[in-house]
Design brief:
This protein has 238 residues and is of the alpha/beta class. The chain has a single domain (2-237), classed as Alpha-Beta Complex (2-enoyl-CoA Hydratase, Chain A, domain 1), CATH 3.90.226.10. It contains ten helices and nine strands.
Length: 238
Amino acid sequence: MTINRPERLNALNKKTRDEIRSALEVAKKDTKVKSIILTGAGERAFSAGQDLEESANFNPKYIGRWIEEFDSLYLKILSTPKPIVTSSPGYATGAGLQAFLLGDYRITSESGKFGMTEVNVGIPCITGSAILKPLVGLAQIPRLTLMCELIGADEAHQMGLVHKVVPQNELRQVTREVAKRFAEKPAIAVGLQKEWIYKLYLDDLKKGVAQAKVSHTKAFASGEPQRLMRSFIKRRSR
């Protein structure tokens, strides 16, 4: 499965979120599919996260539904009973990083860059913090979500965000090899183990979604995210 919007660094809009969920449902039902690869088109990004062209004009009344759409995507990734390998050729930021981190095995090229950059465009990183917590603990969350630092592939590996770092020209091959190893595992046992992993994530994710609805609505009601997003889009278009 490839997030195919390379002209937008594979940014996620409603159409893309819906397509990923639908593709995962197809893969879930297809008995020939034993494992899944989720990656981004091109060599620049897995996904740069939320498409700012979409969210720059959000009405605060829509925010709850928007958070639920992302929650539905994340729950679909977690609840899919087949192993998912997420593979990043470059940037994975914001909601893109959140989706990447929910993969069962995470691979990146040596040029991978990772960050929770939401605060830079005026919105808090609530659900992202809930996803980060079991991976890196509370100590790293302020640095990643307040400073919005982009970290490289090797540091991401050391922190536990990534399982494997490979040269760019080997990324596709190694990703397929990992997916093949997953596909050779007993399907019923794998599905039962994934069901338990899903339950381990669920409490923190539910709390994150509930808080995100409150915090993001307040942020968009202030007008700050819309202003910062439009400014970013304007700078990018020059």
